[in-house]
Amino acid sequence: MNAYDIIKKKRDGGELSSEEIMFFVQGLTSGTIPDYQVAAWAMAVYFRGMTGRETRDLALAMADSGDTVDLRGIEGFKVDKHSTGGVGDKTTLVVIPLVAAAGVPVAKMSGRGLGHTGGTIDKFESIPNFQVDKTPGEFIAQVNSVKAAVVSQTGNLVPADKKLYALRDVTATVDSIPLIAASIMSKKLASGADGIVLDVKVGSGAFMKSSEEAFELARIMVDIGTSAGREVVAVLSDMDQPLGYTVGNALEVQEAIATLKGKGPADLEELSIILASYMLLMSKQVPDLATAQQVIGELLHSGKGLQKLREMVVAQGGDPGYLDNPHNFGQASLNVTVPSPESGVVSGIDAEKVGLTAMRLGAGREKLGDRIDHTVGIVLRKKRGDRVRAGEALAILHANDPYRLEVARKSLVEAYRISTGAHSFPPLLLGVVTREGVERYV
Ligand code: URA
Hints:
Elements: H1 3-11, H2 18-30, H3 35-48, H4 52-63, E1 79-83, H5 91-101, E2 106-110, H6 120-124, H7 136-146, E3 148-152, H8 159-170, H9 177-190, E4 195-202, H10 211-227, E5 231-238, E6 246-247, H11 249-260, H12 266-282, H13 289-301, H14 304-315, H15 321-324, E7 334-339, E8 344-349, H16 351-363, E9 377-380, E10 387-388, E11 393-399, H17 402-415, E12 416-419, E13 429-434, E14 437-440
Parallel strand pairs: 1-4, 2-3, 4-5
Antiparallel strand pairs: 5-13, 6-9, 7-11, 8-10, 8-12, 9-11, 13-14
Helix pairs in contact: 1-3, 2-4, 2-8, 4-9, 4-10, 5-11, 5-12, 5-14, 9-10, 12-13, 16-17
The protein binds uracil.
Residues 84-85, 165, 174, 179-180, 183-184, 207 line the site of uracil (URA).
């Protein structure tokens, strides 16, 4: 067996055997298959696709390419959540404490942001001294005592994905459904949870621009998880505009805290409750989804979710005073209003463009290793469907650099579409995929 024959077979539309996939993943991880052959193979997969069986084999081989997390030291059914990546997506900060407050252990490994999408770890680090690096023993001990912990992905978790993703990123092969499904599920399987709720985003700010592609991705990921003996549910949600009103790390944490106080935006609250409810339902502590939603809604509105976030922050070395007084979060030095150039109704907000604007303000990384500025970002004042008059604020930019501010001001105006006609918009929740099948809401 050799890499050349495997690339050629895929290039010509063949189906790779389990052994060939295993050989290729082991070779790319150890470096015996050089980057140029891995890149060529990724492009062949991009054009030829993979069968469900090949995608499953790829995910399992990648999950086994490095360390795996053993969560057996945690009592009970362990749950995890994952978003396929969005803009303004701070649901993890709301969902983890709600699920933990319901008594279900959440052992969460998260990544940092790259490109236009933010990362949960960067958001948590907006709280001074919040520690995201823990030994496996400390991680497990915290989940046993607090029921929740969020840590940065360990160095040797799924090294095959680290290498392959870096090559995909520079060879225009990221947006391939089998490669995305295997990439996400390999990390979820290696992270050890018994139940996984996937938030599959659809729209301009997501990898999946159409709901057809998103349902396919969801179905494949549920199939991979199920075949590996995990419980998996995928919720499909709209990412044709940012979630909530804030984009940028400390700004998003403040919005998540407000949501746990019952004062958050309706879309963020709705999505957080449904994701948390599926996580609770999986643990079999409630008989049905309606009961799960009732329990989670009550934990949110009673402040018990916020109390759980406080316990998490304390356990991870952060200052819980920030939850009581969000004004403690540092402010960017320049706060500038972006006025609407015309009157009408906001008919669209290009979420990817908003994410890129926040990144250029310094809220995200253009390349791995860039330092981020937790204080900068965007607060939207108008969302899809809102009326706006010429000169009225579309958004407020929070910046620390006048040059970056100017660039951001221009690109934010371009992200808004304002028109005068009547419009209808998709709902926030588009459907659910479980091992039993697909339910579409629209
Ligand atoms: N997120 C991942 O982890 N991998 C992908 O390929 C795309 C999104």
